[in-house]
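User: Can you recover a sequence for this backbone? Please restate the input before giving your answer.

Assistant: Of course. Working from this structure:
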């Protein structure tokens, strides 16, 4: 199936797919453990000392690749989000900010793990992240599309895109912007993206879906596989291979989609 077809299969019945994901034995076991033990955590150190709880929480916020950074996360939680000079704000990573906002020991102290954000929202995030990762194992483009669908409506400005690698990848792919532009001055990058899209459009379901569909079509066009030997094909970039043509389905999709 194409990236768009696979994405739509999940997105059109996202509730059922979340239920399927949360019911998987390994996922259900992690959720049960978290629910049974998170209330026992009364401090930042208590969270960091429980590797399993900390791992679930970090994965829920897309930070599973930073489990080694306990020292960094301890400083983030100790400082909270109270000012522009706090570590969470200076790192300019929306995932870390969201983590600090949920586990806000600075504000809620020992009662932090009793808040809705920690008891319920973390579990919802964990399931969503697992669902996206499961889809990404078969098609990374579907994972990116689902991630964008979930997070783009929360954007308030273009810098939020530039601060999030996955969101930026989707935008660059959909708009045909070279990843090499990421080396440019951040204000120039923001200006370039602002000239091509409106952040407010992502709050409108129809326009959000049109943009995601545009990404899916471009993703498939950019990663077309040539298989001339019956074995694994070579991924060829549409923009680097002058003799590669876009398939009829992808071409029709690109011609018919409107971002705005």
């Amino acid at each position: 199936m194409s990236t768009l077809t696979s994405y739509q299969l999940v997105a059109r019945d996202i509730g059922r797919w979340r239920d399927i994901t949360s019911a998987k034995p390994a996922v259900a076991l992690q959720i049960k453990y978290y629910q049974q033990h998170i209330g026992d955590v009364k401090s930042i150190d208590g969270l960091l000392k429980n590797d399993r709880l900390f791992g679930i929480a970090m994965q829920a916020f897309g930070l599973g690749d930073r489990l080694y950074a306990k020292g960094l996360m301890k400083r983030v939680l100790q400082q909270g989000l109270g000012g522009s000079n706090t570590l969470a704000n200076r790192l300019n990573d929306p995932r870390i900010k969201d983590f600090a906002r949920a586990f806000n020991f600075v504000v809620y102290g020992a009662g932090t793990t009793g808040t809705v954000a920690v008891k319920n929202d973390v579990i919802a995030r964990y399931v969503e992240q697992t669902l996206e990762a499961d889809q990404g194992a078969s098609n990374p483009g579907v994972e990116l599309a689902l991630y964008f669908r979930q997070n783009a409506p929360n954007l308030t400005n273009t810098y939020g895109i530039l601060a999030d690698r996955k969101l930026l990848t989707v935008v660059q792919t959909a708009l045909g912007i070279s990843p090499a532009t990421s080396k440019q001055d951040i204000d120039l990058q923001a200006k370039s993206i602002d000239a091509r899209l409106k952040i407010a459009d992502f709050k409108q379901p129809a326009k959000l879906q049109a943009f995601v569909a545009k990404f899916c079509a471009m993703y498939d066009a950019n990663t077309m596989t040539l298989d001339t030997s019956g074995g694994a094909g070579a991924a060829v970039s549409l923009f680097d291979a002058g003799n590669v043509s876009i398939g009829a389905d992808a071409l029709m999709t690109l011609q018919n989609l409107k971002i705005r």
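That completes the design. The chain has two domains: 3-128, 139-256.
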